[in-house]
What we know:
Number of helices: 23
Helix content: 40-55%
Strand order of the largest sheet: 10-9-8-7-11
Structural class: alpha+beta
Domain F-box: 2-51
InterPro entries: F-box-like_dom_sf, F-box_dom, Hemimethylated_DNA-bd_dom, Hemimethylated_DNA-bd_sf, SirB1_N
GO molecular function, one term: DNA binding
Protein name: F-box protein 21
Distance between the termini: 77 Å
Largest sheet: 5 strands, antiparallel
Pfam families: F-box-like, Transglut_core2, YccV-like
Amino acid sequence: MTKTLTDLPTELLEHILCFPVLQDVDICNVSCCCKRLHDVCHGRGKVWGNQYKLRWPRLQRFYRPNESCDWLREYRTRHKVGIQIRRTVESISKRFFTEVVLGDSFAEIESLGMPEHFCEDELLFILNSDKRKNLTLKYYAKKILYFLRQQNILKSLKSFLEQPAEHQSPLEGAVLVDRYCNPLADVTLSSISAQLDEIAEKVKKMLKIKNPSHPSLRDFELQRQVMCSLNSVLYEQLQYKGNECDYYNPLNSYIHQVLLRRTGIPISLSVMYMTLAQKLGVRLEPVNFPNHFLLRWCQKPRGSEDIFDFVYIDAFGKGKQLTAKECEYLIGHQVTADYYSAISTGELLLRMVGNLLNIGKRGEGNEKSYQLLRDSLDLYLTINPDNVQYLLLQARLYFHLGIWPEKVLDILQHIQALDPSQHGAVGYLVQHTLEHIQHKKHPAAPEVKLRNAPEHLEVQYSVGLIMKHKRSGYNCVIYGWDPKCTMNQEWITTMRVNLLPNGPNQPFYNVLVQDGTCRYAAQENLEPHSAPMEIGHPEVGRYFSEFADTHYATNEELQTRYPEDADVTLGTVQRLYHRLMPDSGNQDQQNSHHPNPSQ
Length: 599
């Protein structure tokens, strides 16, 4: 008697249907053939479980091995989440193109009520797709992922702060600060602890070499041997050091960067040093010393309140051990005994975040410094939510960036309740924030620039072209242009535009530069690049959809503003690259104050 496919054992049919060449549509088609195959596809879940694992391998860590699960339901849910996330990302691109810093645009993602790990997996799927395509989709997917991860980290920080003070680990707190400021980096407490465990093992080996008879850590002289070995490994063998040359680099405050670059500032090095000492059996305490964070080590078995019963350790200064008097030499003046007291983990985190906040305020007013300022304010006010000074700074920052106007009003209301004397500043911001909310309800139509307009005939280049600066040599891509320089007279004088042969009365171009800056360059200073390459600027995806080997293709939003520029074809690009460009101009106009033309 002839046997058909359906006569095969269920296990064998499942094995056949789990072949990697079969996709979800194939399984659906097979299941529609007959009841027998339908039962095989859907009965025990093995077939759809295999499809799920093949399509979304990153999600396997959320399931236990051999876990019983309705895989078809999981597959459908994950598939629907993917569709919804893509639609949301695409809509955000269209609706928020004119915002320099995105804020309230991502709140709707949280309100979708979808499983967080599914949302993140789809965003990562978008980010890891074809490198040169879907640049705008990736640009906003990255920002959304940044936002979602920060929200989760903030929840973890709040839970951490709710623990009893004695259970709050300085290292865990420092890692949470690190993760919040670097949500796209792969930073975990377990990975940081593992690296510190490796250093601790090196110290133990060094201790055996230096002190073979070292029996225990009960005696202070024996603990001193541990500290000596720790300094030897950390500062001599591994070459850790304080970053005196680039002290105000925010990387110095991130614990994973301290371990990677082997340099930091007093507080970050102190957290690492204190954690290592604890792993080796020596208890150190953090000291909020002015201008130079320190650690202290009590020399009395039962503790003490006398500042002279402690040795103070300068982790920034290669673990040097100091007396109370010598600590004052570090800062050049005397301080009261209060400054030698041990502080809590919460106070340590406030100092660490305060450093980042000051670095953000010292920034150049670009998106990177604004982001650092936003992140550090979020962290500071999570730890100390009633600080009026920083609440007011946060409200002013959001107002300046034009984001979260409703949240600005909430912050101002909180400030007024905490300190009624701030009514003047609060009233001013309330009035202008309400005006901003009204303005957002009736946005102005975007300016459209046509190449064929009489006033634009001198414009030679199109958005999307890869250019090279004739004198400075930097590579860039054009994302906007003006028929004449639109900057004020102060900028024109500062940048010596009048020294150019054609001065300000020539086309000027907004360009994204390979080094991550945005500049405003005169036409006579630019020429098409002879060997076009991708421009590694973080804002490329905001304006362009893909890199087409010779130029960038504009996305829909930029195309509406420069509709005729988008028609640049490969042939036009090739002709431009073979045209002989005249040598002229010698000025480089850095766009440090030039507003984005889309604002």
